[in-house]
């Protein structure tokens, strides 16, 4: 169930086109982020998919079929829609809000109830605690979760999300992004996600489409956009990484983007030490009783003997040293060797991790030599 735009234009009378000859394809099971400056046509593009807006010309296909050939109400029932304002109805309980579309589809009570329970458990919200509350009795982050669950309620194959986490503080925002990523790795929906925030785009997008003045400026995976921005406009969006190889970074940059203490213990043993899982990342580190990093893995260690050396990558290959030149570390991260690398200090002691995200963030704050 993919989505395809073919030469789509939306022009409001008396204005220059909000969307101009847009052609792009969202693959089935892909999360595509639309990003670009305010007014570039992101929301309008999204709202044309479920016919909240009609194109002036061109065609949009959902599952290979022109959206204009669907009855709009029927079309919208098959497409989840989550927005920043959540759209939760204040006089309805959380359960009633989640059940809105299932009710319209005339699901019986038992099926609706089971689905609501299942959905709440997906985001670790206890049914008995939350189902009977009203939206105002939830935090902003919890309300956003319900907004997303409502979009998932009838298990639609396509979901549209318009800055669903836009109003949240950075911490709730990050935890919802992590949750969405986790859900998406299981559910593999076709998602079109609008955001202003490049960090969010990098984190969530399988691909990112950058719009400017209603037109598609560049589309690609986060890595492609970082490595080969079409021009400075794209480079700016990607954290000012234009001409990346020529960047002269300060020697202690690694100190700026290394994260410490973001792990929790996965397993401990008096003889071998401990295995820690780095939070929010597919990264497990084996640290011995003296604090020395012994092994690195991108899979959760399982099996009878988790301390078997063969199951681990040697830190010489899969870690960086705190004395390594920061350009080298950045290059390894940005070229996609790994989403994160452990950092070892003197005596091969584990001291933290560097991540793609933290590297990009640090870089976007660095004054570049060739910036004039
Ligand atoms: N109903 C309307 N009548 C006239 N112009 C409109 C209408 N709706 C949107 N526009 C214009 O179309 C352009 C694109 O708007 P749109 O909301 O799609 O942009 P956006 O990229 O989502 O912006 P933002 O990031 O600020 O939400 C803007 O210039 C906007 O002013």
From TrEMBL:
Q: Report the record's Gene Ontology biological process terms.
A: glycine betaine transport
- GO terms assigned for molecular function: ABC-type quaternary ammonium compound transporting activity; ATP binding; ATP hydrolysis activity
* UniProt cross-references to InterPro entries, sorted A to Z: AAA+_ATPase, ABC_transporter-like_ATP-bd, ABC_transporter-like_CS, CBS_dom, CBS_dom_sf, Gly-betaine_transp_ATP-bd, P-loop_NTPase
Query: Which Enzyme Commission number(s) are on file for it?
Result: 7.6.2.9
Q: Reply yes or no: does the keyword Signal apply.
A: no
Keywords assigned = ATP-binding, CBS domain, Nucleotide-binding, Repeat, Transport
Q: Which residues form a coiled coil?
A: none
What Gene3D superfamilies does the database record attribute to this sequence?
P-loop containing nucleotide triphosphate hydrolases
SMART domains in UniProt: AAA
- Presence of keyword Lyase: no
User: What residues does the ABC transporter domain cover?
Assistant: 3-238
Pfam families hit by this protein = ABC_tran (PF00005)
Domain CBS: where?
313-372
Record's GO cellular component terms:
membrane
Concerning its family, UniProt says: Belongs to the ABC transporter superfamily.
Indicate what this protein is called per its UniProt record. ABC-type quaternary amine transporter
Organism, scientific name = Dictyobacter vulcani
């Amino acid at each position: 169930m993919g989505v395809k735009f073919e030469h789509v234009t939306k022009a409001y009378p008396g204005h220059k086109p909000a969307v101009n000859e847009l052609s792009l394809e969202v693959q089935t099971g892909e999360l595509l982020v639309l990003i670009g400056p305010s007014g570039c046509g992101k929301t309008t593009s999204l709202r044309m998919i479920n016919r909240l807006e009609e194109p002036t010309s061109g065609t949009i296909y959902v599952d290979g079929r022109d959206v204009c050939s669907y009855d709009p109400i029927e079309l919208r029932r098959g497409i989840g829609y989550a927005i920043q304002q959540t759209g939760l109805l204040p006089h309805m309980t959380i359960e009633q809000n989640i059940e809105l579309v299932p009710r319209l589809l005339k699901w019986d009570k038992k099926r609706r109830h089971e689905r609501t329970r299942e959905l709440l458990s997906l985001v670790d919200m206890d049914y008995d605690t939350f189902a009977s509350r009203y939206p105002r009795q939830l935090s902003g982050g919890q309300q956003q979760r319900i907004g997303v669950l409502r979009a998932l309620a009838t298990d639609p194959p396509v979901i549209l999300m318009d800055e669903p986490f836009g109003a949240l503080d950075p911490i709730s925002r990050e935890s919802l992004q992590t949750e969405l990523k986790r859900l998406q790795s299981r559910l593999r929906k076709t998602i079109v996600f609008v955001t202003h925030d490049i960090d969010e785009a990098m984190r969530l997008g399988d691909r990112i489409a950058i719009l400017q003045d209603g037109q598609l400026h560049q589309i690609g995976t986060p890595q492609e956009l970082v490595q080969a921005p079409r021009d400075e406009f794209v480079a700016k969006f990607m954290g000012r990484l234009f001409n990346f190889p020529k960047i002269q970074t300060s020697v202690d940059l690694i100190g700026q983007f290394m994260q410490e203490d973001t792990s929790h213990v996965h397993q401990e043993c008096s003889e071998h030490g401990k295995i820690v899982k780095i939070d929010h990342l597919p990264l497990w580190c084996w640290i011995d009783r003296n604090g020395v990093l012994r092994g690195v893995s991108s899979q959760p260690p399982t099996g009878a003997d988790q301390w078997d050396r063969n199951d681990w990558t040697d830190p010489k290959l899969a870690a960086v040293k705190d004395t390594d030149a920061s350009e080298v570390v950045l290059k390894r991260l940005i070229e996609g060797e790994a989403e994160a690398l452990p950092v070892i200090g003197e005596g091969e002691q584990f001291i933290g991790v560097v991540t793609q995200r933290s590297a990009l963030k640090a870089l976007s704050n660095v004054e570049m030599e060739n910036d004039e």
